[in-house]
Amino acid sequence: MTASAAATATVLAFSSARFTPDDLATFETIAEPKLRDGHWVGVVRESGREHDRLLVLLPEVDRPVFRFERDGSGRYTLSFHDRSGWYGIGAGSSAAECLSIWRPRPRTAAPFPVL
After folding, report:
1. 40-71, pLDDT tens digit by residue?
2. Is 19 within 8 Å of 76 (Cβ atoms)?
3. Which contacts (CB < 8 Å, 24+ apart) does range 13-20 have?
4. Least buried of 24, 54, 80, 113, by fewest C-beta within 10 Å?
5. Dist CA 95 CA 93 (whole Å)
6. In what side-by-side order are the strands of the sheet with 42-48?
7. Can you tell me the distance from the alpha carbon of 76 to that of 91, in angstroms, rounded to the nearest whole number?
8. Distance of alpha carbon 6 from alpha carbon 4, whole angstroms
């Protein structure tokens, strides 16, 4: 590239509808054990001008059941599909906040002995 071409190069803005590398890393920490253990059979990425989505496939289900999405305003949502349609189960201003429903929670002591 010549000096004059470099001076006139255009920098394209990163779309706020696209997952960042950190978003994908956050999702991967949740997805990897679920995929490894067979709870999920796959994840499909679907990108458009106004969204970026990760669709989660479960064993023996013929359609995506979970959808993690970042929209054009940079907002994150997590949805569940129950054959009637998509229902929101998480939202946030960051991937970690939105996906917090899937984060492991520490076990609490049982209120009574288990026999």
Report:
1. 999 999 999 899 999 999 999 999 999 999 99
2. no
3. 15/49, 15/72, 16/70, 16/72, 16/73, 16/74, 17/48, 17/49, 17/50, 17/51, 17/52, 17/70, 17/71, 17/72, 17/74, 18/47, 18/52, 18/70, 19/52, 19/54, 19/70, 19/95, 20/95
4. 113
5. 7
6. 42-48, 51-57, 66-71, 76-81, 86-92
7. 5
8. 5
Residue 21 DSSP SS3: helix
Residues 6+ apart with CB under 8 A from 14: none
Token pair 């289900």 in the structure block, residue: 61
What is the distance between the alpha carbons of residues 84 and 75, in angstroms, rounded to a whole number?
A: 24
Q: CA–CA separation, 83 vs 62, rounded Å?
A: 11
**Chain length of the chain:** 115
